């Protein structure tokens, strides 16, 4: 049966014009979905991106459309779009559905792009802090993924209540957020600030993972300094290949990653925290994600009575 499925998929791959980015993406998704629980993956693997555009001008829209097709992106949380209400209702971007929240007087706006042909359920569109948009992608009756995009204004603080809005309902979640804050777990080039500490404490209590590596995701304007103000959160799914790349169109880097929805031994190993590692030592070796996991594990183990020797 498995051999027959793969032969059918190979035939599809041969027929589809892979020079077209959309056709190549469809072929890739067919291969992953047809494999089911007897092939490569027991669930869909999708390519996602995240970008703070610093204002989505016409020139940036052209560059964005080119990059989305070049990287065969399925979904893209956008922050700092600076779109007015009329522009937000009907942006022109070929091949993608748009769901977004127009900017407020003190905010930047948040949007989500999803490739045409994918089933989308529109969720929250919120102007309060954080400005956010959310959609749910339906891959099958038993597989879905919620995508959220959020923007925290620079002068606005964060609270548990405002961060809780990112979680939404239960189920797999990927959230791209411009948090306008620093923490050494995802931004070793800058000292931690109060907002960054609050975000990490909230992650410890609620168990979403920060998937950033230690790579910078932003150029400081008019200086050679680098930092990271954008983070990617995930819950009940796995993010891999998180990578920022220099973007000539914006001071913020173009972030790409793969999102895996399903059950895998690697994902179970990540979330069960089999070893307790001092969090202050981990970021230098394994990156921000491992540091956060170590912090979560050590906090969960506080207060447990020590086992007595027989």
Automatic annotation (TrEMBL):
Residues 146-238 form the Endonuclease/exonuclease/phosphatase domain. GO terms for molecular function: catalytic activity. Gene3D superfamilies: Endonuclease/exonuclease/phosphatase. Pfam families: Exo_endo_phos_2. This is Endonuclease/exonuclease/phosphatase domain-containing protein. It comes from Trypanosoma vivax (strain Y486). The lineage of its organism: Eukaryota, Discoba, Euglenozoa, Kinetoplastea, Metakinetoplastina.
């Amino acid at each position: 049966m498995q051999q027959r499925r793969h032969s059918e998929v190979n035939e599809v791959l041969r027929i589809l014009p892979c020079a077209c980015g959309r056709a190549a993406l469809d072929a890739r998704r067919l291969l992953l979905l047809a494999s089911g629980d007897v092939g490569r993956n027991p669930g869909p693997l999708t390519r996602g991106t995240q970008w703070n555009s610093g204002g989505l001008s016409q020139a940036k829209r052209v560059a964005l459309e080119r990059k989305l097709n070049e990287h065969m992106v399925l979904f893209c949380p956008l922050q700092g779009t600076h779109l007015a209400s009329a522009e937000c209702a009907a942006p022109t971007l070929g091949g993608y559905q748009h769901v977004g929240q127009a900017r407020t007087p003190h905010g930047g706006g948040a949007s989500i792009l999803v490739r045409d042909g994918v089933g989308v359920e529109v969720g929250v569109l919120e102007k309060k802090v954080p400005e956010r948009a959310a959609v749910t992608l339906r891959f099958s009756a038993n597989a879905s993924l919620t995508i959220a995009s959020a923007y925290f204004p620079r002068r606005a603080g964060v609270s548990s209540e405002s961060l809780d809005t990112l979680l939404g309902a239960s189920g797999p979640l990927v959230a791209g957020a411009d948090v306008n804050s620093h923490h050494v777990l995802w931004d070793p080039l800058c000292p931690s600030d109060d907002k960054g500490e609050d975000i990490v404490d909230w992650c410890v209590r609620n168990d979403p993972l920060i998937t950033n590596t230690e790579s910078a995701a932003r150029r400081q304007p008019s200086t050679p300094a680098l930092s990271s103000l954008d983070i990617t959160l995930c819950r009940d799914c796995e993010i891999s290949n998180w990578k920022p790349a220099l973007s000539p169109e914006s001071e913020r880097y173009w972030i790409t990653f793969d999102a895996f929805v399903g059950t895998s031994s690697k994902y179970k190993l990540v979330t069960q925290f089999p070893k307790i590692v001092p969090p202050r030592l981990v970021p230098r070796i394994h990156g921000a994600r491992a540091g956060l996991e170590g912090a979560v594990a050590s906090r969960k183990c506080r207060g447990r009575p020590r086992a007595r020797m027989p």
